[in-house]
Predict the structure.
Amino acid sequence: MIDKISASVEAALRDVPDGATVMIGGFGGAGQPSELIDALIAQGARDLTIVNNNAGNGEVGLAALLKTGRVRKIICSFPRQVDSQVFDGLYSAGKIELELVPQGNLAERIRAAGAGIGGFFTPTGYGTDLGKGKETREIGGRMYVLESPIHADVALIKAETGDRWGNLVYRKTARNFGPIMATAARLAIASVHEIVPLGDLDPENIVTPGIFVHRLVKVPRTATGPAGFRQAA
Amino acid sequence: MQRLTREQMAVRVARDIPEGAYVNLGIGLPTLVANHLPRDREIFLHSENGLLGMGPAPAPGDEDYDLINAGKQPVTLLPGGAYFHHADSFAMMRGGHLDICVLGAFQVSTTGDLANWHTGAPNAIPAVGGAMDLAIGAKKTFVMMEHLTRTGESKIVERCTYPLTGIRCVSRIYTDLAVLDVTANGLKVVEIFNDLPFGELQKVTGVPLID
């Protein structure tokens, strides 16, 4: 019987190697798999390359991982936020490498990796500092920049509900990078708040088919908190 | 020289957004436009973190931080709205499916180059987000900004001195003094606010304008 369910987050994260490239889902706090990140911190892998839209908020989750000093490089679109003090400190001190990628290029590079695409031409970034040094081509009278796929060793994503085959559905805008990151990693690990029997998920509504998911683990449901913006006093 | 307030600017931009338009409002000043869209028009607001049919902020106490906008603030979803992942969201943008995006700016050039993501200051931490995708993706890119910097320099320039977000991507500029179209012949004045004489506008802008 195929059962991709791990008994604990520790079991799910047991074999992340040093030097791994780890994709972490989420846009600010929404979709950030905090329990899996905490387990990665406890597991102790170092010299990591992290792929995320942001670079951590506050002192928890991704920010806490950065604080351990075990992240060598981060690939993201929007590191600087009102509550990104952990990243800001590391970056200013030269202790973390940053590859800044326009958000749509980040998404498409992840999608391309998952879809077996070796590279793609995009108009985004042409003529800007972030397109500098890259191959360009005129296609149909418009200029494009060649971008490469981003593959990962591990993806940590947060979904809402799953089954033992790894089929997933998400919740609202917490979906964000989850479905594409699952496709781009050799080992995709999802946290879910609910595990249902096979057949209970409506097959018309499954967002990530289980073929992309290698392990899932149930974590208690907690409300997502605010992150990444200045709250009115 | 009497300038429009930020709210008045938002009202003016909102007036130009037609029924049925798919629209992305950038972070900052453009976000205000949502509050002034004419209520008799159905307009689809897109947020790049994965929703279409974005509604207003929730009532206090009803915030759900799994339902946020690109500025990571809590929002609501209108009936008929949809969620999707990031690659689909940027396909909507890059694929030319959005009709209008409204962006803030540090500078816009006379040919429609846009600078809005980075001041280029040596110790500034760069962050780009979806700015470059937005600038080149929508059918029309509107810029909404104060006409002058705090020190009185024109933000409309011959060539941007800040790092570029996109080249030749802006179609219309809304400022607190005027509305300008970027045309093949140069910047054409569409409207000047508060009876400012053209000559005065020309003088403070510093680059040639077409009356």
In short: Chain A touches chain B through 55 residues (CB under 8 Å).
